[in-house]
């Protein structure tokens, strides 16, 4: 998906992204998801687990950068 579509679809896809800063969504897309919805689903899963583990109420850049390392550790 192109970035404009990502910015429209991702916040509607999951409540974790509803109030996320569009710049954070763009960063995640640029560095990890690359417009791929399946990648967004995996990232969202890991972020929601991380939100529960860390007690965060929303996605932030620190959590976003933590998620790929956490995914590797869980394998």
Individual helix count: 5
Overall shape: globular
The pLDDT mean sits at 91
Low-confidence stretches: none
Please provide the ordered H/E string of secondary-structure elements.
HHHHH
Question: Separation of termini?
Answer: 28 Å
Largest sheet: none
Structural class: mainly alpha
Let me know the number of strands.
Answer: 0
Q: What is the beta-strand fraction?
A: under 5%
Question: What's the Cα radius of gyration?
Answer: 11 Å
Helix content: over 70%
What this model shows, in words?
- With 75 residues, the protein is mainly alpha-helical.
- Helices cover 79% and strands 0% of the residues.
- The chain contains five helices and no strands.
- It has helices at residues 3-13, 15-18, 22-33, 37-54, 61-74.
- Helix 4 packs across helix 5.
- The longest helix is centred in the middle third of the chain and has 18 residues, at 37-54.
- The radius of gyration is 11 Å and the shape is globular.
Concise overview:
This protein has 75 residues and is an all-alpha fold. Helix content is 79%, strand content 0%. The radius of gyration is 11 Å and the shape is globular.
Which descriptors apply to this entry?
75 residues, mainly alpha
Task: Give the secondary structure arrangement, pairings included.
Layout: H1 3-13, H2 15-18, H3 22-33, H4 37-54, H5 61-74
